[in-house]
Amino acid sequence: MSNYSIQAIPENYKMTAFGVILEDYNDWAGNAAKTAAKKAEITENGKLAELLALADGQEYQINYVVNGKAWRGFGVMGAYDVEGAVVLDFLAGDYLVVPGTGADKDRLADEITGKVFGGLLQEITDYKYVGPGNSTFVKAAEDGKFYGEMWLRVKKVAG
């Protein structure tokens, strides 16, 4: 069984991000390219830096459902009025928290996401993922590697 915990978040919260709609959720290569292009765009034009400066400086990779379609973006905790960004609502409740470590900062969020959706959610039988979104952060660890966590809203399964 993989390492995870359940954390209770007592209040709704918001995240602000730049992202893209993923028209075909199963187009893994196309979605990765689209997401990478958006990240490059907001890095090069300074929009991500602007958003990080307004918040606490911690960047999140965010998956969400926007107008019934999968959406992926990059943003911060909190609600901010920045041109081109969207403010996403995250609900109070129980959250599955999945940690991970790695040597590559740019790959760790995707590695944790792959672990969660590639099997961990099926292993956990007493909670189910209810969304509408999830977020992952990565930060430097003391040993020169990186530490990250994915947070997903879940609901206890009756029984």
- The tally of helices reads 3
In total, the number of strands is 8
Q: What value does the average pLDDT take?
A: 94
- The portion of residues forming beta strands comes to 35-45%
Enumerate the spans where pLDDT stays under 50 for 5 or more consecutive residues. none
What is the CA-CA span between the terminal residues? 21 Å
| Biggest sheet descriptor | 8 strands, antiparallel
- Placed side by side, the strands forming the largest sheet appear as 1-6-8-7-3-4-2-5
Summing up helix and strand content along with how strands pair, one would put the structural category as alpha+beta
Give me the Rg, rounded. 15 Å
Identify the overall geometry: globular
Order of helices and strands: EEHHEEEEHEE
Helix content: 25-40%
Tell me what the structure shows:
The protein is α+β, with helices and mostly antiparallel strands. An eight-stranded antiparallel sheet has the order 1-6-8-7-3-4-2-5. A hairpin with a 2-residue loop joins β3 and β4. The radius of gyration is 15 Å and the shape is globular. The two termini are 21 Å apart.
Descriptors:
single chain, 159 residues, alpha+beta, eight-stranded antiparallel sheet, 3 helices, 8 strands, 45% strand, globular
What layout of secondary structure does this protein have?
Layout: E1 5-9, E2 13-22, H1 28-44, H2 47-54, E3 60-66, E4 69-77, E5 86-90, E6 93-102, H3 105-123, E7 127-140, E8 146-156
Antiparallel strand pairs: 1-6, 2-4, 2-5, 3-4, 3-7, 6-8, 7-8
